[in-house]
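Lecture 7, part 2: worked example. A protein chain together with aspartic acid.
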Amino acid sequence: MNTFSIAIHGGAGTLVKGMMTAELEAQYKSVLQIALNAGYKILEDGKTAVEAVEVAVKLLENSHLFNAGKGSVFTATETHEMDASIMDGKTLNAGGVSLITGIKNPVSLARDVMEKSEHVFLAGDGAMQFAKELNYTLEDASYFYDEFRHNQWLEIKDTDSFQLDHSTKKDSKFGTVGAVACDQDGNIAAATSTGGMTNKKWGRVGDSPMIGAGNYANNKTCAISCTGSGEFFIRGVVAYDVACLMEHKNMSLEDASNEVIHKRILEIGGDGGLIAVDTKGNIAMPFNTEGMYRGQKSSDGIEEVAIYG
Ligand code: ASP
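Predicted complex, written out as structure tokens:
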């Protein structure tokens, strides 16, 4: 039996220790642990990596703590527009959705795009029409309302800024969520889900739903889920770049992930992190920010939930 493993993230960023209370830190860790255990259990039961990443991401989407699903940030027009994607490394099938509203679990809609449509990426009204045809129920705005997120938005709503000031004085983080997994058959998958950037406008879409940028899986190399400054992750084609370094330069998962996060993305001005797994169940979780909400668990006995570097 292949070593099976799962890694999850709840976003990277400037997480100032002083601004995090012990109680809040415990809450974050508890949700991460629950999502990690649920995804791991799927793998332990012999189910697929695709199922494991969907289950783990759904649980993170259901928490108001992370910027995805329930906890999604506010757009410039005080709404929520969510993006998500999923990819199966065995078949290279993939699904992505962007600019969707009212959907409790965007990752499941992305999986439905992958499995129940002939397409890879659906956006906006069309994606919502697809959800309607599959009988998704829509949550109203109050489900997604969170006072903390609303205050984040109020602070910058009349500016052209579309993310929180990334200074060391402020607790500024990218709360996107994601999961990567390797199952007992050595198949890998990745899923990513986000509310994007606070105060985003004009139908802004980040890297998270884009196959190759914020999310990628290929049994030849690795499965990757990213978090960070999306505009730079798109330009750097970050998730695919890690896979390319492994495929064409024969780099290990660890070396390729480090090269991209500690060198290549910094060179073009981006910051953030990623989680990665290969078909042997190895995991890498580099980030170039102060912290990244993260967890990993493998049948080799590795188990960790952490926030800071
Ligand atoms: N990468 C996401 C985006 O640009 C943000 C995040 O990681 O939180 O939409």
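The longest helix spans residues 22-44. DSSP finds nine helices and 13 strands in the chain. Keep this in mind for problem set question 3.
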